[in-house]
Amino acid sequence: MSDIFLQKLWRWCLFCCFRPESQHHSPAAMEYWLISAPGEKTCQQTWESLQNVTAKQGDLSTNWKFHIPDLKVGTLDLLVGLSEDLGKLDSFVEQVMKKVSNYLGDVLEDQRDKLSENLLANGVDLATYITRFQWDMAKYPTKQSLKNISDIISKQVSQIESDLKIKSNTYNNLKSNLQNIERKQTGSLLTRNVGDLVKKEQFVHNSEYLTTLLVVVPKMHYQDWHNKYERLTDMIVPRSTQLVFEDNDHGLFTVSLFKKVVDEFKQKARENRFVVRDFTYNEEELAAGNNEYFKLASEKKKQLGPLVRWLKVNFGETFTAWIHIKALRVFVESVLRYGLPVNFQAMLLHPQKKNHKRLREVLNQQYAHLDSTASSGDKHDVMDMPGLGFGTGEYYPYVYFKINIDMVERI
Description:
Keywords: Hydrogen ion transport, Ion transport, Transport. The chain contains ten helices and ten strands. By secondary structure, the chain is an alpha+beta fold. It folds into two domains: 3-161 and 308-404, subunit c (vma5p) of the yeast v-atpase, domain 2 (Up-down Bundle); 200-280, Alpha-Beta Plaits, CATH 3.30.70. A four-stranded antiparallel beta sheet has the order 2-9-1-10, sandwiched between helices. The protein has a four-stranded antiparallel beta sheet with strand order 6-7-5-8, with helices on one face. The protein has a two-stranded antiparallel ribbon with strand order 3-4. α3 (76-108) packs antiparallel against α9 and α6 runs antiparallel to α9. The two termini are 51 Å apart.
């Protein structure tokens, strides 16, 4: 298979198989366009031409050179396959990166509004990192093949995803157990833990015959309770009821009686819309319950700091890996699109507010000569290979990838 044929085949694939990127509803200020164009007489001239054309049309964008090192090209047929693999890897890494970002927001809880200032890459904000992008030679040696570099990134991010799953499950279980205890300490008297509402002296202790029950009574039935409780069964201790706590809807009363009539009393109470809580005063159990709460609260606090640090570090790791994938994709697509020897200029554009459409038109005009099918509109004419039934799709005469650095999930 000749190199020329592969280049032509690749051009057909770009026209026929390209699918537009999904629409983002993030602020436009977070959107950057990563493009490349072949070197004119020099790559510097290509850069200056872009600067001139965007400035001449009314400062349509702020532009930066995007530095990609000399990478090993390999054969064109391998590049075709790698192009598809990099597209999948791009989506995967972006997905993991946003999982880390979203979970960091969840962990920050009431400080979630500070999420964006915690999302850094190599110690700087995301915009600074991409506009001053430098290839990380230590992590991704350029002596390695493109496939090996993509494998390094894939393994790195897969490990982060695996670690995230373990760490989030551990922290979520701890948080859930703590929330369950907190719910039992609040809410309605019908369901909440009442152990922290009562005192030892409100109960009969160490009696062979007597016991003390806790009864929840609706506020509107307080008088009814006082009128009836002594007569619900025999063997009720007279004037033994005491209001120990009340919320908006109910009161919690004690009543002392003989143990032998407890079951009968519960039934009669239920018939009169009084609810007997299943509770036995036990100082050791109450202390254990309090200890469990403080233990979980202390463990959550202990885990929070290291977890936040891990999430911040690994967000940075996934973000930088993601931008390196973008660099790989630009390199591969540029070689496939413009051919060998490697001679193109990668450029990062930050479209100015409300100028996206005009910038696209200007870029299409500027680079229309790169392909005979190019037109000045957003969507170009699409060629169709007879008999293959390929659909139509959006296409630009220059290599283009969108980078959206808005990582804050909006509800």
